[in-house]
Write a structure and sequence with these properties.
Order of helices and strands: HHHHHHHHHHEEEEH
Family: Belongs to the CobD/CbiB family.
Helix content: over 70%
Shape: globular
Largest sheet: 2 strands, antiparallel
Distance between the termini: 16 Å
Organism: Dyella japonica A8
Subcellular location: Cell membrane
Keywords: Cell membrane, Cobalamin biosynthesis, Membrane, Transmembrane, Transmembrane helix
Number of strands: 4
Radius of gyration: 20 Å
Structural class: mainly alpha
Strand content: under 5%
Protein name: Cobalamin biosynthesis protein CobD
Number of domains: 1
């Protein structure tokens, strides 16, 4: 029950406060990672494994030791630590804060503002996107980051507490920094990309299942199993295919990166995305969070009842 309560409080803090505007631990971690990369980078997988370990493992160990020490000092301090850590690693409100300006600009017919806003969410060349392509980029980002910024952290917190949430979030951050198939990161970033794939394997499929249950279930299930295998990412594919199917919109397709249009597999079925598709994607993620919290609370209650029977 304490795990479920900690998760509820962390989600509430995120909704109330949003991300810290100054001295966010992830910003400090990003700077540390840049420093470690500058000292460890080499065109070898082993160098990437070493760099990943130096960046992530001390922070996870520190979270575990601090949590254990607080538990021995006073259990409520350990509980408060869990709440604060989870609040710092989830980004539900941040997701909405980035996506809503895109939807608002599209609704107002301001394509230039929509392109600027979506450029803060995705890495593709937004200056050449039309209205539907801007809406697709934002909707894809909301669906995928529903897993990366929210559900993945909730899953590992439920499993391992604050240290699990720290492990997941830092691994996800390093994948975003090093997990590219470029000349610099093809080998060095291999460990960051593969570890993130492993940590996301179960959460991504639970996220996709949540989208199935909370949207157009038949279409979401069909799109998940037919389209996800065609996607390069083993975890983004199920999440975005199920999400697009749940919303009844067409995503995927061609997208421009560094001046080149890349052909990507289709995702979902139905009409082209618009501003409302972005809003509905946010609503789908929020409803998924409520579902997860309810299931974890029910599981905790059953365990508590069994132990006190």
């Amino acid at each position: 029950m304490t795990t479920a309560l900690a998760m509820v409080l962390a989600v509430w803090l995120d909704a109330w406060l949003g991300e810290p505007r100054r001295w966010h631990p992830l910003v400090l971690f990003g700077r540390l990672s840049v420093f470690i990369e500058s000292r460890c980078h080499a065109d070898r997988r082993g160098a990437g494994v070493l760099a990943w370990g130096l960046a992530v493992l001390p922070a996870v160990a520190l979270a575990w030791l601090l949590r254990a020490w607080l538990w021995h000092a006073a259990p409520w301090l350990s509980f408060a630590f869990d709440v604060v850590v989870l609040y710092l690693v989830i980004g539900l409100r941040s997701l909405a804060d980035h996506a809503r300006p895109v939807a608002r600009a599209l609704t107002e017919g301001d394509l230039a503002a929509a392109r600027t806003a979506v450029g803060r969410m995705v890495s593709r060349d937004t200056a050449v996107l039309d209205d539907a392509q801007v809406a697709a980029a934002a909707t894809e980002s909301v669906l995928e980051n529903g897993n990366d910024a929210v559900f993945g952290a909730l899953f590992w917190f439920a499993l391992l507490g604050a240290p699990g949430a720290v492990l997941y979030r830092l691994a996800n951050t390093l994948d975003a920094m090093w997990g590219y198939r470029t000349e610099r990161y093809e080998r060095f970033g291999w460990a960051a990309a593969r570890i993130d794939d492993v940590l996301n394997f179960v959460p991504a499929r639970l996220t996709a299942l949540s989208y199935v249950l909370l949207g157009d279930a038949a279409r979401a299930w069909r799109c998940w199993h037919a389209q996800a295998p065609q996607w390069d990412s083993p975890n983004a594919g199920p999440v975005m295919a199920a999400g697009a199917g749940a919303l009844g919109v067409c995503l995927g397709g061609a997208a421009p990166y560094h001046g080149v249009w890349e052909l990507r597999p289709a995702l979902g079925e139905g009409r082209p995305p618009d501003a409302q598709a972005i809003v509905r994607a946010l609503r789908l993620v929020r409803r998924g969070v409520v579902l997860w919290l309810a299931v974890i609370a029910l599981f905790g209650f059953v365990r508590w009842s069994t132990g006190h029977a």
